[in-house]
């Protein structure tokens, strides 16, 4: 362990699933390293990792159509969906290991079996869904996927989708019974409990105000406690900025060249929620549809069963909106304060090329409560307004960056930014985010700790047996891994 006068080995900024995952990995792999964690809110997992601020899907591309869009020629490509499923299996393997080691509690405290479905209407969408299903049939990680355009079969899968629906409507659905619902808030809190038990300092109500590279190569982290506005400075050999939407500002303050050209586009959202036991009991699935024209992929409508603190609820949404805040608890000045000379061009290019998105967001912002409820009734014709209420979801900040051809592009995904010397890294972007936290952090470890990573591989292979291989290339290995993790995580 470092003595108090030495720099901290690792500083993690943000109390979400990313910092929790990275902290746990480092503590297991290098228990002698000192770690300090700073969170600006009063507890961990209150922003994007909070279970009511995200859909908790356990993104495995089993039902999310935006990972397999239809090409202009009518073909469908499986590579992105397969890659995301691979990533989720890596996360499941680590969670299984941590359950076996007693780091995580009973599996049903953070993950529960929940079939994943896709539901579409209209002849063209039905034809597309069948092509998607046929393309995935041969993929080992999508073993067991089912397709039907028979209303009686779909009714058996999810009665609420079909009750009182017109018999003349063309519909189809797919189902994968091995899907899950993940409470990332509980998972994050449990990982922080482990870190605390291992002597890791987690300081809440503590805002990082600046990051500065010093002459000796360490980072000077300037902080301010919200209680008393007490300033403080900490030196660190490595800094991870896992501050959600706040990561862009901090990486800009660090002045690393790698952040030049990056901007952020914030999107807010709401969900309709019901806790009525009678309604909840009739929907044991997560059902995704197709996004509206011009809508961002994160706004794909879905009707989800959620299990939080042992209580089942249903969520429908999200209803996208616009706010210049980069965090739910952020400032109205977040967006303008993020603009720099180096990212203004890419941001303007994104605005020029995404007029449909802007029109969609404006329509969502001014949509009436009754119009929002109409969207739910397209999924669930018998929905009763008395059973549902609106909740505000977390903020998502989509990545905008330079593009040689168009000047700038809006990226719907996550991106890890690392300095050339590997002394600082940060995560930008949103979905699939939390579900792929483990492979994202493994990639960060290899990029930022190149000298140590080879020595960690033996331990990492114990934790994640498929490390360095692709399950989809070995059907037998995929089947074995899925069964083993399902058994440990009590997924049936």
TrEMBL record:
Cofactor: FAD
Catalytic reactions on record: (S)-malate + a quinone = a quinol + oxaloacetate
Family: Belongs to the MQO family.
Chain ranges passing through the membrane: none
Species lineage: Bacteria, Bacillati, Actinomycetota, Actinomycetes, Micrococcales
GO molecular function: (S)-2-hydroxyglutarate dehydrogenase activity; L-malate dehydrogenase (quinone) activity
GO biological process: tricarboxylic acid cycle
Organism field: Subtercola boreus
E.C. numbers: 1.1.5.4
A family per Pfam: Mqo
The protein's name in its UniProt record: Probable malate:quinone oxidoreductase
UniProt keyword terms in alphabetical order: FAD, Flavoprotein, Oxidoreductase, Tricarboxylic acid cycle
Pathway: Carbohydrate metabolism; tricarboxylic acid cycle; oxaloacetate from (S)-malate (quinone route): step 1/1
């Amino acid at each position: 362990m470092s003595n108090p006068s030495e720099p901290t080995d690792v500083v993690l900024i943000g109390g979400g699933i990313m910092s929790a995952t990275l902290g746990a990995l480092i503590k297991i792999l290098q228990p002698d390293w000192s770690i300090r964690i700073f969170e600006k809110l009063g507890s961990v997992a209150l922003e994007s990792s909070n279970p009511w601020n995200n859909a908790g899907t356990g993104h495995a591309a089993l039902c999310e159509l935006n990972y397999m869009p239809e090409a202009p020629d009518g073909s469908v490509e499986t590579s992105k969906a397969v890659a995301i499923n691979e990533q989720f299996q890596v996360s499941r393997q680590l969670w299984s290991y941590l359950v076996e080691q007693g780091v995580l509690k009973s599996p049903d405290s953070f993950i529960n079996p929940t079939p994943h479905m896709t539901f579409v209407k209209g002849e063209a969408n039905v034809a597309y869904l069948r092509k998607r299903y046929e393309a995935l049939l041969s993929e080992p990680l999508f073993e067991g996927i089912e397709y039907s355009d028979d209303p009686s079969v779909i009714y058996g899968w999810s009665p609420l989708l079909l009750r009182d629906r017109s018999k003349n409507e063309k519909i189809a659905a797919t189902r994968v019974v091995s899907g899950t619902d993940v409470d990332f808030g509980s998972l994050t809190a449990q990982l922080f409990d482990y870190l605390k038990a291992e002597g890791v300092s987690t300081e809440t109500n503590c805002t990082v105000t600046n990051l500065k590279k010093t002459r000796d190569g360490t980072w000077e982290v300037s902080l301010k406690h919200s209680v008393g506005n007490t300033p403080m400075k900490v030196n660190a050999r490595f800094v991870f900025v896992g501050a959600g939407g706040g990561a862009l500002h901090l990486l800009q303050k660090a002045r690393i060249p790698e952040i030049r050209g990056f901007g952020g586009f914030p999107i807010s959202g709401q969900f309709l929620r019901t806790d009525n036991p009678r309604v909840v009991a009739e929907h044991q699935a997560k059902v995704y549809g197709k996004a509206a024209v011009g809508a961002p992929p994160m706004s794909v409508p879905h009707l989800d069963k959620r299990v939080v603190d042992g209580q089942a609820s249903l969520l429908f949404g999200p209803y996208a909106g616009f706010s210049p805040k980069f965090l739910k608890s952020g400032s109205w000045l977040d967006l303008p304060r993020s603009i720099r000379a180096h990212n203004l061009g890419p941001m303007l290019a994104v605005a020029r090329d995404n007029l449909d998105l802007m029109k969609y967001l404006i329509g969502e912002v001014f949509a009436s409560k009754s119009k929002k409820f109409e969207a739910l009734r397209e999924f669930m014709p018998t929905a009763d307004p008395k059973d549902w209420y609106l909740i505000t979801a977390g903020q998502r900040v989509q990545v905008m960056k330079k593009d040689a051809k168009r000047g700038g592009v809006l990226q719907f995904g996550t991106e890890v930014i690392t300095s050339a010397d590997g002394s600082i890294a940060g995560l930008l972007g949103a979905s699939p985010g939390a579900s792929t936290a483990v492979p994202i952090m493994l990639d960060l470890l290899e990029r930022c700790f190149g000298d140590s990573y080879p020595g960690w591989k033996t331990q990492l292979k114990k934790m994640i047996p498929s490390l360095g291989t692709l399950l989809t290339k070995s059907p037998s290995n995929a089947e074995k891994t899925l069964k083993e993790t399902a058994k440990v995580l009590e997924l049936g």
